[in-house]
Amino acid sequence: MALDQPEQSPTAPGAQEPAALVKPELDAVPETALWTLYYRALEARRPDGLLDDPKAVGLVERIDFPFAERFGTGSSLLLRLQALRVASFDREVSDFLDRCPRGTVVCLGEGLETQYWRVDNGRANWLSADLPETVALRERLLPPVARPIVLRTQVMREAGYVTC
Fold this sequence. Notes:
By secondary structure, the chain is mainly alpha-helical. Helices cover 46% and strands 9% of the residues. The chain has a single domain, classed as 3-Layer(aba) Sandwich (Rossmann fold), CATH 3.40.50.150. The chain has helices at residues 28-45, 54-62, 67-71, 76-99, 115-119, 132-141, 155-158, and strands at 104-108, 125-130, 149-152.
């Protein structure tokens, strides 16, 4: 047990045990999913934040990873720019779903993006294509949902864009 945390009382009957921290097994390009997630969560935690993303905040809390050590604490400007980028994509997807409520949203290399929970209209189809290790982490961390279709693919590697 960490020294700075109080001892937990036994779990009451019928209550859920706290979820164990998840250690990601990502490096190189797939690790960028952790960076974007962390910066979204940092901005969402700010009292004057431009982004409402409780799912990102919860994910960072569940991942056993030295975020601040690896990625820093983020300048206010960098956090705001990331939030504006996310808000721009959310707005475009929302506008599309307003025009085409049963449309299909295609997410390529979305990593640990939580856009589905921010803008889904309950009727759209979602298709996500990502690297197998990133999809595996998503499946461990995010709740299953009925409509998204997730494809494990190594398109960039198969096309010869990644040489390692």
